[in-house]
Amino acid sequence: MALLLTMPSLSPTMETGVITAWRKQVGDRIEVGEVLAEIETDKAVMDYEVVDEGYVREFLVETGQEIAVGTPICILSATAEEDIAALRAQARSAAVRPAATAAAPAPQPQAAAPAPQPAAPDPRPAASPALQPVATPLAAAQAVAAQAVAAPMQAPPPLAPPPAPGSAGRPSGNGAGRVRISPFARKLAEQQGLDWQALQGTGPAGRIVARDVEAAITGGAAMTLTGPPPAPAARPTAQALPGFAPAAQPAAPAQSAAPARPAPTAGGAGYEDLPLSMMRKAIARKMAESKQTVPHFQTTRKVRMEKLLELRASLKAQFPDVRISLNDLLVKACAVALRRHPVINSQFLGDRIRRFAGADIAVAVNTDDGLITPVLRNVEAKGLQQIAAESRALADKARERKLVPEDYQGGTFTISNMGMFGIYEFNAIINTPQACILAVAGVVREPVVEGERIVIGQTMHLTLSSDHRAVDGVAAAEFLATLCGIIENPLSLLL
Amino acid sequence: MGTQTVFFREALNQAMVEEMERDPNVFLIGEEVGRYNGAYKVSLGMLDRFGPKRVVDSPISENGFTGLAVGAAMTGLRPIVEYMSFNFSLVAIDQIVSNAAKTLYMSGGQFSIPMVMRGPGGPAAQVAAQHSNVMDSIFAYFPGLKVVLPSTAYDAKGLLKSAIRDNNPVVFIENEMLYGLKQEIPEEEYTLPLGVGEVQVTGRDVTIVAYSRMAHMVRQMVPEFEKEGISMELVDPRTIKPLDIELIARSVAKTHRVVIVEEGHRFCGVGAGIADEIYARCFDDLDAPIARVTHTENPLPYAKGIEAASLPSPAAVMRAAKAALYRL
Predict the structure, then answer these.
(1) B309 touches chain A (CB under 8 A)
(2) Interval B257-282: pLDDT, tens
(3) Touching check for B220 and chain A: CB below 8 Å?
(4) Which class is domain A3-101?
(5) A295-494 CATH pick, 2.60.40.1220, 3.20.20.60, 3.30.1380.10, 3.30.559.10
(6) CA dist A457 to A81, A449, A465, B67, B142, Å?
C-alpha cells in the first residue's frame, strides 16, 4: 500500500511552507518518527517527522519552493518495488488546486464545492454540448488522425484553475520564488511603481493579471511604492540580480548582497527587489492586520530606575552565576502588575473578552530574519532565576531559528524592549489577539525634580499600547501606575 | 456616389469583368468557367462578354492549366485561374509552389508571374473530408505567394481587382459559404490594397483576429458580446500574406488580450504564425496567453453533428474570449 504525504500544517497559522532540505533520499527506508524533511514555516525551520513507515519513492516538490499546506510532497510505499503510477496521477490532479485546499481557516462556499474538472479554456469546440450524442465517431476520427501524427497535435493542456478568492497560498510550480505574472500586468505594475511581488494573483495557478494590478492601484491594497519607474534600459528585477537566494534562505542584508546593480536612471533612485522570507511575510501580514484593524491607543509614563538597578546590581554581586537581566526583572514586574490588573491581561475576541488568570509574557526577540516573540509561561509562578534561564534559552533558540510552535504560540501580554538601542521612547504595535503590548525604552540619566530640587536621576519611559475594544484609558493608566510602583519599589516583588 | 446591393459572388464577377475591360492581357481559365458560367456562377456572363479566347473552358486538368497559366504569365499575360474547388489545387501544387512562387526568384527577377489563383475554399456544408480542406496555411507558408481571404463582398471586389493588378502570384481563396452574402457596395470603381487589414468592430477588452468566414461569424456575435459586457474588437487582416501585423499589434496594445479564430487546424495553422508575430511584437502588452479557436485535429466528418463539432463555433469563440479575460 503506497501513500501520498502532503505538506503538513506545523503551526496554527501556517498556510504555506518551504521544504529547505530532504533528510531522506529516494529509495531510502523511513521509520515512524524519523525526519523526512526540514520545513520552513512562517515562524521557524522545523523537522517533519513521519507517522507512517515505508520506502521513499518520489519527491513531488522541489526544495526551496513555497507550497500550500495539503499539497502532495512525497510518495511512500510499503515495498520498494510497489507500483505508484496511480498515486502519481492523484498527486498531479491534487497539485492543480493546492491553494484552494489550503484556503483560509474559515471555509468559503467556493472552496467547499467539490473540485470540478479544471475549468480551462478548451480551444476545441469538441467540448460543446452538441458533441455529446456523437462523441464516439468524432473521437474515432481524431484517434485515426492521431495515429499518423502524435504529440504536437494535441490541444494544449488545460491550465490550472485560479485559486479560490481569498485563499492565501500561491502555488509556484516553476520553482522557488517564482511569482507568475502576465507580461502586461508586470509592465503596468512597473509603470505605476507597484511592488507586484506582494500581490495575490487571480489568474490560473495564481497568475497576477492586469485586473489584480489595477485593483491594487485603485484600492491601494498591498501597495508599495518603489520610487519612480526606472528607465527601460536598466530595469533590475529580482530574477535578474545574481546571488539572490530564493525565499528559503534569509535575505542577505542589502549592503552585502551580490554586486548591487543600482539602476543608473535619470532622476530616479536605484533600487533592488529582495524576495520575502517566510518570516518577513508573516510579520508583514500580522503587523498590517493589527495596525489596520485594532484601535490602538498609547499611554506613556516615566519611571525612576535607581532602585531596580540597585537590586540588579546586588543580585549580580551576591549570585554571580544567575545572570539576571534588567528585562528579566521587568518581566517579573509585569507579571505581578498583570495579576492585579487582569483587564490588561486579556484578548478581544469579537463577541467577548477573554481574561487570563496566568501571565504568559511574550518577549520580542530580534533575529537576522526579523522579529519573533517567544513566550515565557506562567511568569507569575516563577522565580527570577527560572525566568532568566528560560528567557535566555528562548532567545538563543530564536536566533538559531529553532523555535517550535509551542515556544511562540499564545501569550497574554508582550514586552518589546529597545532600551539597549538607545531609544528614548517608542510605540509598539499590538501583538494580536493580545490586548496590550509594553514598549520599554532605554534608561537615561537626566535631570528630575525631586521635591524642590533638581537632581540627576535614572529614568526610563514605558509606553503601553492598548486595544481600546478591550481596555479603556483609565485601566491602562492604572496598570502603568502599578507597574511603575513596583519598579520604583522592587521589594514589592517579594510580596 | 451610388451604391448597389450585390452578392459576394457578383462582387467577384464585377472585379474580373472590370479588370478584363481595363486590361486586354487579363484572361480567365478553369473548369466550366465559360459555357456553364462557372460552377458557382462567379463567371456568369463572362464568356458572352469576352469570348472563348479570354474565358477558357479547360479540361479537368488542374496541373495542366495551372502550368499553362504560369507560362502565359511569364510571357506577359495576366491569367486568372479558377479552381472549381481549392481542394483541386492540390493536383497542381507543384506548379503553384515550384513554378508560380519561385520563378521570379530563380530567374533573377527577369520573369514575374502576375497570376491569380482563385476559387471556393474551406469547409462548406457536408461535402466531407476530401472537399473540406482548409489550405490557407499551406500557401501562406511559401515565400513568393500572396494569400488573400476576404470576408465581405466589398472586400472581395476591391481585393480581387488589386490581386489581378499585382505582379506576383496571388492565391485568392473565397469561402463557399459566403458566396450568397448580400452587401451594399459602391457603384463606382474602387480597389483595396493587399496586405492592409481592417478593424471591423471597435472595442477595448479583447482583440479577435479572424478572416474569411470566421470574421463573418464573429461579426454576427456583436450582440452576444454586448450581452456579456465584453467590448470586443474584431480585426480582419483580409490578406494573410503579407500580414498587416501592425494593425493587429495596435489593437493588442489597446486590449491586451487576443483570440485568433481560423477554420484550419491548430498545429502549423495560420493562427500559429499570427500568434508568433504577436508574441514577438507585443509580449509586454499581453495580459493572457493568446487563445486560439480552430478546426479540431481530424478530417472533417460528413455527418452534420460532428462536422459542426469539429469547426469553430460562436460558443467556442466566446469561451476563448472569456478565457483570455480570465472570466471562465
Answers:
(1) yes
(2) 999 999 999 999 999 999 999 999 99
(3) no
(4) mainly beta
(5) 3.30.559.10
(6) 77, 9, 26, 111, 94
